[in-house]
Write a structure and sequence with these properties.
The chain is mainly α. The chain folds into 2 domains: 171 residues, Orthogonal Bundle (Tetracycline Repressor, domain 2); 42 residues. The longest helix is centred in the N-terminal third of the chain and has 24 residues.
Length: 224
């Protein structure tokens, strides 16, 4: 089965052989898992020989490492641009989503399988969230304190949870939420949820709940 392009509307034949192999590996690792996917599966999906795969990457482990680096650059790179003040508009978002479908599918599988690369990416995402909290609300979140670490790691888990649970989201909505045509749905829904929940939590009932949860947490023994 031909691999989906990770470069927007460009057909697979427009990519270099190395990029085609990497994209095929992302697709096969996401669908089968790293252990089950073979170099022959990847070569067949990329339309090349096993020898060419070995020429470019050497081994399956090295190919997996190349996939890990690509996913890290794709996912965290876009997030970093936003945090650094990039001009976020529809064109920016299009470029980000065009490049990310294969990476996100690979990441979803890696997070479930518990790979070291997924753990490292989660940690980097949580650290980026810590910086965001500390830089955006410096009076409330001091770098390194427990409060900012807790908020940041929960935020990272909330966002990555939508990827891990993509099959359930897809089943509930009747579409493949990771497919390029639908990939902006999660981001748009998250932004809308944040906007409305922000208003609700600031109102009387939400603020009362927030205070009750905070008070209860503070009264719990540290090792509970």
């Amino acid at each position: 089965m031909p691999i989906p392009s990770s470069a927007g509307d460009r057909p697979p034949e427009d990519l270099t052989a190395r990029a085609r192999i990497r994209d095929a590996a992302l697709d096969q690792f996401a669908a089968r898992g790293v252990k089950a996917a073979t170099l022959k599966d990847i070569a067949d999906a990329a339309g090349v020989s096993v020898g060419l795969v070995q020429h470019h990457f050497g081994s399956k482990d090295a190919l997996r490492e190349a996939c890990d680096m690509h996913v890290r650059d794709t996912v965290l790179g876009a997030a970093g641009q936003v945090q650094d003040g990039a001009d976020v508009n529809a064109e920016f978002m299009k470029g980000m989503y065009d490049a990310s479908e294969l990476s996100v599918r690979y990441l979803a599988r890696a997070l479930v399988e518990g790979s070291p690369a997924a753990a490292a990416l989660f940690d980097e995402g949580a650290e980026a969230a810590e910086r965001f909290f500390a830089e955006t609300w410096p009076d409330e979140f001091s770098p390194g304190e427990a409060k900012v670490r807790e908020r940041a790691v929960v935020m990272a888990a909330m966002h990555l949870g939508t990827i891990v649970l993509h099959e359930h989201l897809s089943r509930r909505l009747g579409i493949d939420v990771l497919q390029r045509a639908n990939s902006s749905l999660i981001g748009a829904a998250l932004a809308d949820v944040y906007a409305h929940m922000g208003k609700w939590i600031a109102a009387e009932q939400g603020d009362q709940l927030r205070q009750a949860v905070t008070d209860f947490h503070l009264k719990e023994p540290p090792d509970a």
